[in-house]
Amino acid sequence: MSTPLVGIIMGSNSDWEVMSQAAKMLEEFGVPYEAQVVSAHRMPDDMFRYAEAAAGRGLKAIIAGAGGAAHLPGMVAAKTIVPVLGVPVPSKYLRGEDSLHSIVQMPKGIPVATFAIGEAGAANAGLFAVALLAREDAGLAEKLEAFRARQTEVARNMKLEPLK
Ligand code: RP5
To answer: Can you tell me which residues the record assigns to a coiled coil (predicted)?
Structure first.
């Protein structure tokens, strides 16, 4: 396995169903990544260690997902200058609106690039990490262009059922 360029972290293994969409996207593009649970409130020291080591280990982006009072992306961003992409994971009672607000409302000075709630957000965070890496990797840029072109073709070929 090559050295990971993207770190995917999440608050719980219950987030994996959503966060695996980011991993699938990175796999599709052949980007080396790692994925693990780093809980902000249950493993705060591990979280800081992860963030502090990220740049030195060669991570170019960190995709961080959490649900509820989702402080993981913001706290990780506070301890590293590696770009942090935040994914709000749907929560049981507030359906992820709590997660979204916790992640998106970062005070000025520590940015977290915040994505949509749930699977689309996780997949788009993966795609965004690919786009970041593609700035320095012509082969990856070509794959991203091809991905977009295929998507365009699918949309162009969409047929609508006639009214009955
Ligand atoms: C957060 O609390 C996690 O990110 C997860 O979305 C949520 C629930 O965690 P579990 O109770 O399923 O471990 O920390």
So the answer is: none
Distance 66 CA to ligand 1 centre (A): 7
Q: How far is the CA of 76 from the centre of ligand 1 (A)?
A: 17
Report helix, strand or coil for 92.
coil
Give domain status of residue 163, yes or no: no
Q: Distance between CA 61 and CA 58 in Å, rounded?
A: 9
Half-sphere exposure of 112 (CA within 13 A, CB side): 30
CATH number at residue 48: 3.40.50.1970
For residue range 46-96, what is the model confidence (pLDDT) as tens digits? Answer: 999 999 999 999 999 999 999 999 999 999 999 999 999 999 999 999 999
Cα–Cα dist 93/41, whole Å: 19
Determine if ligand 1 sits within 6 Å of the CB of residue 89.
yes
- Are the CB atoms for 77 and 110 separated by under 8 Å? yes
Given a cut of 80, whether residue 45 has pLDDT beyond it is yes
ipTM reported for the complex, 2 dp: 0.96
Does the pTM of the predicted model rise above 0.90? yes
